[in-house]
From TrEMBL, chain A:
Name of this chain's protein: Carbohydrate ABC transporter permease
Family: Belongs to the binding-protein-dependent transport system permease family.
Keywords for this protein: Cell membrane, Membrane, Transmembrane, Transmembrane helix, Transport
InterPro entries xref list: MetI-like (IPR000515), MetI-like_sf (IPR035906)
From TrEMBL, chain B:
Cell compartment(s), UniProt: Cell membrane
Organism: Subtercola vilae
Record-linked Pfam families: BPD_transp_1
Keyword annotations from UniProtKB, A to Z: Cell membrane, Membrane, Transmembrane, Transmembrane helix, Transport
Name of the protein in question: Sugar ABC transporter permease
């Protein structure tokens, strides 16, 4: 629709011709929208240019100046200081496993709720939703105590187990409604062929709903990657920390000079930017689908 | 209440996306002669995990709020003492006051601004300057949303550094050196700085949701209103806002819940300080758990926060249901 009016074509048959006239007010509003966009983007730009400066370059040129010479000291310092590859691996390992486990649990729950239509399903869904709405502080100390008792404190598996439950609670809520509208004819055909419930789930329902499941997996992965409170509490030793935790706990440290701090922010935002670029289409589809009833 | 479920009454909780139009109770799968109970089996793993990781800790935490517990000796039951203390605890009330500041920064400002920006991008930029310009701007607005919130805090915190931070540096460069400030370190600006971080993080979320919702708006409605002499703002208020109201509800609900839970930026930037200037309930309970070792009292704060969160969620859903009913009754 929008492209019709682009470049102000003068064909008489375009019905919304009058809309393609751009008034001064239009240009002013566009400028306003761009200014907001710039204001949002400026912090990213500042972090980017200042991560490649030496502290003296920063001191002489200030934060707005383009780097006098490309300097990787800040990045290398921080990279080595936190053993960044290890933190990346921890985050990948935790988020990846959580995404897979949580989607399996979500599928099982949603099969019973959306397709099996078990009794009291509305309340079951509310219960799962509640688990997702709760502040994590309300579970924090008992979980801390429990995981200490079973010897999983300061172990990535504690975080994997907790987030599998929290993410699958949301996944159950979402998938139950998706499965609630699953085409009945397909299920009947499969049942007539003598397929068992277990077979129907894995051979029919999961393959057909794979696009939805893929979106959910990506969301679980990114949400888990971005989590803070529970990884901070449960992963106390350096070797187990995730990317956001490792970076956040070093803020204000006296060994962190201005460009190293900037580099730490840069290293923290690169992975999520990469995910965003890779999954952009899926993400925008998913974000809006989640809110539109 | 749960027994009503056996009748053919449709779900009363409208935000659950269980299809309301289907009123029959049978499963979508025809029974293969095995009886209807089999589907419960599939809920077992999910229920066991939910019980162990959520239900038991939640109840345990509520119990701890009635105890004196320092994490070493077993908890001692002290009745309502923690709750009485909480009601008179100025720090606790400050923390909830700061939660309201977080609601301003994460719900009110982004939703209002997001409505205007979304309408602007959709109506004006999209139609007159092309859809690509609009989606590019939308992606820019959304950029901070994809960051871990702790990293977003590091980014803005870096700009607000007191000694050689970018903001102070720029201020002195343009001759406003007098305005230089220890933004995160002074009680008068610390909370505002955190609010600034949250607006930056949050703004893209309503814009993206509202722009998607605006696609439902029938352009003919606008044209008709235009012919009737309605100006842009009147059209915006009576058509746009009415049609995308469900999304406005979802955005305000989810953002309010998120605002009540803010933790990462506070931990990263100020640890609640200076003094109690930026303390929020989640950080307060965290510090009681792991720094002061006042586990019982920390559990009380966490329980209070949980109650507030659930009350807010239920309130929103009730209001939305009423609005929906009023609409369908029309």
């Amino acid at each position: 629709m929008a492209t019709i009016d682009s470049i102000g074509r003068t064909t008489k048959f375009v019905p919304r011709k009058k809309k393609s006239k751009r008034t001064v007010a239009d240009w002013l509003l566009l400028t306003g929208a761009i200014v907001v966009g710039l204001a949002i983007a400026v912090p990213f730009y500042l972090i980017l240019i200042n991560s490649f400066k030496s502290p003296s370059d920063y001191a002489s040129g200030g934060p707005l100046q383009w780097p006098a010479a490309l300097n990787f000291d800040g990045i290398i310092n921080f990279w080595n200081r936190v053993a960044f590859p290890q933190k990346l691996w921890n985050s990948f390992f935790i988020s990846g496993l959580v995404a897979i486990f949580a989607v399996v649990i979500s599928v099982l729950n949603a099969y019973a709720i959306g397709i099996g239509r078990v009794r009291g399903r509305t309340w079951i869904v509310v219960l799962f939703l509640l688990a997702n709405v709760l502040p994590q502080e309300a579970l924090l100390y008992p979980l801390y105590f429990m995981f200490k008792q079973v010897g999983l404190y300061d172990n990535v598996w504690s975080v994997i187990i907790i987030f599998t439950v929290i993410q699958s609670a949301f996944g159950t809520y979402l998938l139950s409604s998706v499965y609630g509208t699953f085409p009945k004819e397909i299920l009947e055909a499969a049942a007539l062929d003598g397929a068992s419930r277990w077979t129907i789930l894995w051979r029919v329902i999961v393959p057909i709903s794979r696009p939805t499941l893929a979106v959910i997996v990506i969301f679980f992965f990114i949400w888990t990657w971005n989590e803070f409170l529970i990884p901070l509490t449960f992963l106390v030793s350096n070797a187990n920390q995730t990317v956001p935790v490792a970076i956040a706990v070093l803020q204000g440290d006296r060994l962190m000079d201005v460009t190293t701090t900037s580099a730490s922010a840069l290293l923290g935002l690169i992975p999520t930017l990469v995910f965003f670029l890779i999954f952009q289409r899926t993400l925008t589809r998913g974000i809006t689908a989640g809110a539109v009833k | 209440m749960a027994t009503i479920e056996t009748s053919t009454k449709p779900s009363t909780v409208s935000t659950t996306r269980v299809k309301k139009t289907r009123v029959h109770e049978e499963s979508l799968l025809p029974n293969s002669g095995k009886g209807g109970g089999g589907f419960w089996l599939y809920l077992i793993p999910g229920f066991v995990l939910l019980t162990v990781i959520v239900v038991i800790p939640l109840i345990w935490n509520i119990y701890l709020s009635f105890t004196s517990y320092r994490g070493i000796k077993p908890p001692k039951f002290i009745g309502l003492d923690n709750w009485v203390e909480l009601m008179g605890d100025a720090k606790f009330w400050t923390s909830f006051g700061n939660s309201i500041a977080m609601i301003v920064a994460m719900v009110i400002v982004p939703t209002l601004l997001g409505l205007v920006l979304a309408a602007m991008l959709f109506d004006l930029v999209g139609k007159k300057f092309g859809g690509r310009v609009a989606s590019f701007l939308r992606a820019t607005y959304y950029l901070p949303q994809i960051l871990p919130v702790a990293i977003a805090a590091v980014v803005i915190g870096w700009i607000l550094r007191p000694d050689n931070g970018a903001l102070n540096d720029v201020l002195s460069a343009v001759g406003l050196g007098g305005l230089q400030h220890n933004w995160l370190g002074s009680p008068d600006t610390a909370l505002l700085s955190i609010m600034f971080v949250m607006v930056w993080v949050q703004l893209g979320y309503p814009v993206v949701i509202f722009m998607a919702a605006l696609q439902r708006v029938d352009p003919e409605l606008y044209e008709a209103a235009e012919l009737d002499g309605a100006n842009w703002f009147q059209r915006f208020r009576s058509i746009t806002v009415t049609i995308i109201r469900p999304e406005i509800f979802v955005v305000t609900l989810t953002s309010t819940i998120a605002a009540l839970k803010v933790f990462g930026p506070i931990y990263t930037l100020t640890r609640g300080g200076p003094g109690t200037a930026t303390i929020v309930p989640s950080y307060y309970s965290y510090s009681e758990f792991f720094q002061s070792q006042q586990v019982g009292y920390g559990a009380t704060i966490a329980t209070a926060l949980t109650i507030v969160t659930i009350v807010v969620a239920v309130f929103f859903i009730k209001v939305q249901n009423r609005a929906e009913r009023a609409e369908s009754g029309r």
